[in-house]
TrEMBL record:
It holds the Pfam family GFO_IDH_MocA. It comes from Paenibacillus profundus. InterPro entries: Gfo/Idh/MocA-like_OxRdtase_N (IPR000683), Gfo/Idh/MocA_domain (IPR050984), GFO_IDH_MocA-like_dom (IPR055170), NAD(P)-bd_dom_sf (IPR036291). Keywords: Oxidoreductase. Residues 133-252 form the GFO/IDH/MocA-like oxidoreductase domain. Residues 5-123 form the Gfo/Idh/MocA-like oxidoreductase N-terminal domain. Belongs to the Gfo/Idh/MocA family. The lineage of its organism: Bacteria, Bacillati, Bacillota, Bacilli, Bacillales. This is Gfo/Idh/MocA family oxidoreductase. The keyword Oxidoreductase applies.
Amino acid sequence: MEQKLRWGVLGCATIAIHSVIPGIRASKTGEVAAIASRDVHKAQEKAEQLEIPKAYGSYEELLHDPDIDAVYIPLPNHLHLEWTIRAAEAGKHVLCEKPIALNADQARRMVEACAKAGVKLAEAYMYRHHPRYERIREIVQSGEIGTVRGIHGTFSFNNAGDKNNVRYRRDWGGGSIYDVGCYPISAARYILGSEPEAATVHAFLSPEHDNVDMMASGLIEFPDSVALTFDCAMWAAFRNTLEILGTDGRIEVPSAFIGDPNFIVHTQEGQREEEMPKLNAYALQADNMAQAIWGEQPLLLNPDDAILNMQVIDACLASAYERRRVAIT
């Protein structure tokens, strides 16, 4: 019988139900063996709906199940620290939804707890698992578009009418930087292969939404005078784009994080569309986790990357709320 990684899911979040659970099922390596909610009836309802064998009325019960190898944590951001550490202590490998924590210090504690327990920890940036980002970086490093002068990224959507959404609780890690601004930050760090030096962010803080940043516009300074400019929003029209500007050309990614994986390369000779396979990035993410656990390949996103990304997010939030440029050390 083919080996399968047995997953448990802590919570019934939309991302879990509509994206990650189907992704695990579409993977070569995984199966969803259990789901938990603080409301046992909700867990049972989702288990029946999704044909998941086990349903638990508490997260603790799932963590005590000896038949679970790894857990996926899609809980609100302020719960990531507690349940990652508790999962690690229970001997479960952890795939934690982005952003991994509320700050870099929490992320560091999570990484240390998982290392101590001897379990794998990965942050769930599914977009990075699609091979197009490896291809984009390959083109950049080849020099085809010349020297990179800057990157611009966007990720916005409008969900402002849902006032009870967890994204609109500041103490729970709400706000657009945490929710979607983290994507262009992560992408720029990967493409440039370096860490930022400073961040300056201006934000629209909405009193109607617990003063979280409903939109933010940022400038992230990288070495060699390269910058990421980005904007992110939860109260604006939808888009998710990325542009990498070089001295001799540019790469345009119309659907940078979700949607059509194709992208366009503009050079002095003209333009071409790079056609990429339409793969399920959530399935690729699940396979990478399983293969890392089984020692077949390393994690694509190692835990230290999560700490580094949180350092940038910390600086962005400090800049937005304090209206100042923040150095990143």
